[in-house]
Design goal:
The structure is a homodimer. By secondary structure, chain A is an alpha/beta fold. Chain A has twelve helices and 14 strands. Chain A is 33% helix and 17% strand. In chain A, strands 3-2-1-4-5-6 form a six-stranded parallel beta sheet, sandwiched between helices. Chains A, B: It comes from Halobium salinum.
Chain lengths: 363, 363
Amino acid sequence: MTPDANHATEGGRRIAVLAHGKFPDRAKTAVGLLRYGPHEVVAVLDRDNAGSRVNDHVADVDDAPVVERFDEVPECDALVVGIAPIGGGFDDSWRPDVRAALERGCDVQAGLHYFLTEDEEFVELAEEHDATLDDVRKPHDGIGVAEGKAADVDAEVVLTVGTDCSTGKMTTTLELVEAARERGVDAGFIPTGQTGIMIAGWGNPIDRVVSDFTAGAVEEMILETGNDHDVLFVEGQGAIVHPAYSAVTCGILHGSMADRLVLCHEVDRDAIHGYESFPTTDVPTLVDLYEGLAAPVHETEVVAGALNTRTHGDDAEAARDAVEAYADELDAPATDPVRFGADEILDVVLDGVAAESNAVEGE
Amino acid sequence: MTPDANHATEGGRRIAVLAHGKFPDRAKTAVGLLRYGPHEVVAVLDRDNAGSRVNDHVADVDDAPVVERFDEVPECDALVVGIAPIGGGFDDSWRPDVRAALERGCDVQAGLHYFLTEDEEFVELAEEHDATLDDVRKPHDGIGVAEGKAADVDAEVVLTVGTDCSTGKMTTTLELVEAARERGVDAGFIPTGQTGIMIAGWGNPIDRVVSDFTAGAVEEMILETGNDHDVLFVEGQGAIVHPAYSAVTCGILHGSMADRLVLCHEVDRDAIHGYESFPTTDVPTLVDLYEGLAAPVHETEVVAGALNTRTHGDDAEAARDAVEAYADELDAPATDPVRFGADEILDVVLDGVAAESNAVEGE
């Protein structure tokens, strides 16, 4: 998978996003597309919130109606499944909407472990109505084992890691890319999950590749883009202490050979999401684990933190206090990149990168 | 995959084992089958050693001729590919032997990432000659994400972990199973790789499952067998600091929720096999990493060590010294399970298990 490989995501398309029962808090793909996607979102499908507006739930994005079913969606080019349930299955209650989209000739894109392109009914309907099915979580052929070469690229590699799933790793990564570019730094984005791939239009779905190739799938993307940028921001996945997903995290950590880590956490998260009998691990212990585990493959350091403070709502003061407490725990700068901007941690994350960039340009 | 699911490995079959150019030191599947398999090995195919005998290379197994090509193999039921190259590809120089085996009506079994059952020529030949193709590295359908429940089973779970690949994790696991059974302990074996699966006739090839399901594939096997035994010995894979394969190791560590770890090492190994620019990590650091990484999911401890001393050849004294030095580094009992037997570490590995077994029986 290279940046040229395309998941039918040229910018400027009009899309509807399916997020039944989960918008916005359990629909991170939907929110990611609203906040960072290159497309115009014409509607969100959530039967539990039908009749409301996107801005009733998410303030800082373009508004759109929330509707009950696809029949109510205005004219559009594609339906995107914007939910990523644990296990990645397809909920059959979504079938009528996918069917209706295809019957209208709209493309359908999803990032599930269940592949639309292997669903007989959808394949037939897509053919009949000249629509495209796009499974962004289906890895391309030819991914193999890592060679331990990601550190050979020119770019500095920055990886987001987490205390758990859904702590804001993708968001933090994209905010860092944007903030770095605003400073004139040539920053690349390495998408590793379905939402990142939908936004960027390319990428390897690391959690779906063969386990033996986990690190290799990350390394491949870094080798292909790492000499074209001064810094690469790699979207992390899961957590190194997650009962189910730690393998993915570990493969990304070693495959990326990251130079710097940004640890993402959500305020007051005290148990692993969906695995409530497992408490989260304290921050200093996690820092030691990430750094200690990475070191034999490539020395790295947690240089900054990103704290998701959405549960503090409008209370910016409480959010600021939480960020400061988190920075103390980390013994490193921290921010909430959505609330306060990624710029607050950019100095330390980019330390030395801009200068290196100028030096290269001056050669 | 359950112990009932069968990879066509009922005992007593006559098999030929393909190990071209790699027998015995780089043919761990071949040697594993010779040492622990339920089958009669009638020949080993290795064109570089043709004309020699198995016992010229491996002393403590049943003898058989080493031949150049399948045409020279005596009557048999199956050809087994007994090499596991980095990357798991199929070397086309093996094609004539696989072809010849199928033409003789022999089944062919392999544990490669390349699937025989997706090779058009082999599929046609197998059909024509009523032979079976068996890819033991092809995971069964229905494997999913871990639920963090492996620790709920009655059995104590013992996992072998390593300082690198090919340090003797499978061998140590099988020697421990045998030694435990000799003491009358009800011990189960959890196969996680191609050789283990070929020997046991069941198992999940963990390095081949979808990355997200790595821990789940191990957990599945433990939940299915863990209440039928007093102790489960889980075959480990890779190493937690391996540049390519650490994801697999991490998934097994967390998915198995092991109660005890046995750290496997090869004497004088100072770089990662096949990744020579990466030095191995010192033993105390590795112990801390394995225990520290496991703890947030399930507390565990490295209770013993297994040292592969084959490079010391006939020098038993040097081997004994090396084992003692390794035990000092570990601060735990150690053995070379092949040279000195697994019994030397069994007390600490089984500590409390036999008593628990009796207690249960007495209820």
